[in-house]
Amino acid sequence: MDLTETTLERKDVFKGRIFSVHVDKVRLPNGETSTREVIEHGGGAAILALDENDNVLVVSQYRYTFSRVLLELPAGKLEPGEDPAVTALRELKEETGAEPASFEPLGRILPSPGCYSERLYLYLARGLRFGEQRLDHNEFLNVSRVPFAEMVERCLSGEIEDAKTVVAVLKAKLKLGL
Prior knowledge:
By secondary structure, the protein is α+β, with helices and mostly antiparallel strands. The chain has helices at about 85-95, 150-155, 165-175; strands at about 5-15, 20-25, 35-40, 45-50, 55-65, 70, 75, 100-110, 120-130, 140-145. A four-stranded mixed β-sheet has the order 7-4-9-8, with helices on both faces. A hairpin with a 5-residue loop joins β2 (about 20-25) and β3. About 25% of the residues are buried.
């Protein structure tokens, strides 16, 4: 069976700085119609940076949506037309002051494909050199280092819930065998 849903109508509801929202009327594979609420987002990149002792550079940041501080990998949104690798390296430098000697992709993920168009590109970085942190004027976070094995355990136990962090840590675990 062809599972494609065809857009019949689109109504733009909101256009913001980070995302926009539209509501679509669609024709389903069985010929009936339904509504789809879609959040359009330009995408982002995250980077798992390991220091010489296999500690992961992480940031603790207050996330208003969940009313608490979350432990996450350095990450940020793609600028229009920007290569995701450039985004990841920029965000690592801005948020932690680190620049890697080696850098490789860990793939990409769709964080919530039921309604959210964001694609997140994941990277692994090693051979870190440290310079000055350069946070945006409205960005507040703390940087720390967590042993890689502890990050794996915290992801598996559910203590760390941030999707990009969980996926990148577990992919790196399989890739590196640490």
